[in-house]
Amino acid sequence: MKKHILILCLLLLSICSVLFLYHFRVEADSSTQQSMDDTSFSHELFDQVLQEHVDEKGRVNYTKLKANPKKLEAYLDLLAFADPEELSYNERLVFWINAYNALVIKGVVNHYPITSVRKVKLFNGFFSRLKFQAAGKMYTLDQIEHGIIRTEFVDPRVHFVLVCASKSCPPLWTRAYSAETIEERLETATLNFLRNPKQVRIDRAKRHVYVSKIFKWYDDDFKEGYDGTADFLADYLPPEDADFLESTDIKVRYLDYDWTLNDFSNNSQGVK
Question: How far is CA 31 from the centre of its chain?
Fold first, then answer.
């Protein structure tokens, strides 16, 4: 009887591990690690993937990418063994931004066709339970975003270059980020996002500013050097809007977030 109970417990434990934690390792081997020892890490392969599969609106051709994922997988193989601790501050920031975006794409490709990352696993499982190998360790996307990027590189602008594969998230850029231009790209991405009426709009009559839920989820990040969301927005909006935000008692309201996949061929309605 005890033996049967033990077997049942082990079976239940195995099922739970499948339900609540998924590991997606890249197919890296010792030869890949050796190549990383001999050469400096490069984002060139990811840059090629983005140029070939992302359009000017930030939509990804997942159908085409799933059919030919070799360059993405080769980049992730290099990512698996790279050592960002040997890099400069900007190089490390770029490493983790590119890593996050590439692994989001990998997670989608692994499960494609889907209409939303919310369909992969319930309860935010796409971000909190799928695990990937990067820099010699296993990480979830949440661990990369919250435990590394937001913790080590305290800069609210990173939220406008991290892409969650959904229509309401910032658009994916057609190039990989580089250390040489990351400051310019952070500013450009932030400006473009905040001046998009789908993400930020002001109702002067009601004295409301409607903003992306990014500002709700990461409220504390926008208090770093600022007096909250309105003060942060004022740095990037046109002068007349900035003056209104700074001179008026504004109430912040949050827009619905569309989790529909940022798929090149996706014309479906939003997934709440």
Answer: 29
Amino acid of residue 208 = H
User: Rounded distance, CA 243 to CA 27, Å?
Assistant: 53
Give yes or no for a contact between 71 and 106, defined as CB atoms under 8 angstroms apart. no
**Among candidate residues 241, 155, 136, the one with its CA nearest the CA of residue 145:** 155
Residue 4 has pLDDT above 60, yes or no: no
The pair of structure tokens assigned to 205 is 């009559």
- Which residue did the predictor score with more confidence, 3 or 261? 261
The 3-state secondary structure of 217-258, one letter per residue: HCHHHHHCCCCCHHHHHHCCCCHHHHHHHHHCCCEEEECCCC
**What letters, b where the CB count within 10 A reaches 16 and e where it falls short, cover 127-161?**
bbbbbbbbbeeebbbebbbeebbbeebebbbbbbb
- pLDDT 10s digits, 38-94: 456 899 999 999 999 999 999 999 999 999 999 999 999 999 999 999 899 999 999
pTM, full prediction: 0.87
From residue 144, alpha-carbon distances to 37, 92, 133, 137, 247 in Å are 23, 12, 11, 11, 38
CA 50 to chain centre: 14
